[in-house]
Amino acid sequence: MSITIRQVQLSELAVLQAISRETFADTFGPFNTARNIQAYLNRAYSSEQLTTELQTENSKFYFLFVNHQLAGYLKLNVETAQSEPMPATHLEVERIYIRQPFKRQGLGTRLIDFAVLEATNQAKTHLWLGVWEHNDAAQQFYRRMGFQPFSEHVFHIGQASQRDLLMSRRLAK
What's the topology of domain 3-170? Predict the structure, then answer.
């Protein structure tokens, strides 16, 4: 199996938009109303919003390919681009999604390992992320990857307010 991770370019906006909408709807659609999911997709993954995010200096998106097929993506934030106020020593994994046909192949681990490498290369001491309180499988995965809960925040999907657990992992020096 050939695995490649590379940074997303602005010229790939349509591909990023498509995988973002697909993976978010697959992950959260069964637990929310169609109306709330559609409202979220329209706001969070509009061309304008994703263009802004792609052009944000302290944010980077990465595509994950398996045998040259797009399998998932990752968004990392540092400094002022983080979605919560955090020290400059922290790197945020804001989005980590794997397409359905590629799940359970160790690709989430590959993306977390990539995030750890990026954080280490930038001399960051912590990696952190938010995970939906009812996504038990993801929480278990993050715990296996060394993350521990440290706080929470509210996440809005359309008209619905939901709670995310914030989890952090201290990186080796």
Answer: Aminopeptidase (3.40.630)
Per the annotation, the verdict on 97 as an active-site residue is no
Residue whose token pair is 């715990």: 143
**E strand or H helix at 84:** none
Spot the catalytic one: 40, 45, 62, 142.
142
Do the Cβ atoms of 91 and 36 come closer than 8 Å?
Answer: no
CA distance 33 to 78: 32
Sketch the domain layout of the chain as residue ranges: 3-170
Instruction: Give the chain's count of helices (H) and strands (E).
Output: 5, 7
- 51-68 pLDDT per residue, tens: 999 999 999 999 999 999
